[in-house]
Amino acid sequence: MESSPNLSVTQKGSRYPVDLPCQDYDELKPDSGKYLSDMQTFNLPSGNKVKVTQENIGQLNLFVDDDPPHSLLALHAPADETQVVAIYLHRKWWPIYEVLKTSSKSRCGLLLVESVMERVILFLLSQIIFGILERPLGENMYFSTHPMREYAKILWQDGEAVGFYTIKKKGSLCDGCTGQSYHLPVLDTVYVRSRWRKNGLGLQMLQDFCSSMPKESAIGISYPISASMFGVCKKYLETHQDQRERLYEVEAPGDWSQRRNVWLSIRLQLHPTQSASSDESPHSSQVMERKLIRPESKVFRELEDNSSSSRRLSFRNCWVSLIYRSWGVSV
């Protein structure tokens, strides 16, 4: 997406919003009327132009309702508020895809989200890029807005933010209603932009999550794990045998009755049917695709009954061994 000549366009070597200082969320608020001071226009890929007028400007809430009410000023296409084309930051309008860029060579790989502008980029990736601009046809999953203090990492590559993952930390609240807290750290959302998929980036993020929790005997991935995410887990666990006993599919808050070992599910083929989508399609606990099958369920018993007796015994022993080892009991 390109801006029209009367908008200042970031040139090669210039700094982007994430490279500019922004110490507080209050700095995101525009000066009164400044964003309307010039009659500017944006050129859309279709060739149409969007004028910067009050009718084409709206506010995007950055966080969930329980957080402070911080927002962004957004320019959208006429008569279609979902088609966001620019964001007002640092006293100017920026095309969406330029906000995701950086001129800093040190901003590379998976980096912890800490600054105000990094929170803005996390929001744009989850709500605008995946939510609207790069959304596949027929996709039925959406990311909820991430809380203000959500633990997250953004994946930077070739000077752009190309993906992210978020974690529900052990001890953090599951929601604002029940007062329950997570019993273990849980990988909650994963996203890789469509242009950068099929390059192993989803696998890179899963490995980073697992390696960042070396002292935890059990770690989780939020239920339900999608078919594409199961594919990533399979690739990872095939080469990381030491992780097989500690990685679980987890329903909040994650007590033992709400966990299922991922590797055991893969071996028993309890995962969803692999779709034709990329193996790095988004993962989120927000979409409900299937029911969690527990070891005592009818489906689990039928799968065991259809196996050979030796294999059935092996899987049963495997499950019992995993349960007892997690409690520190030798079998």
From TrEMBL:
This is Actin related protein 2/3 complex inhibitor. InterPro entries: Acyl_CoA_acyltransferase (IPR016181), FAM169 (IPR029625). Transmembrane segments: none annotated. Signal peptide: none annotated.
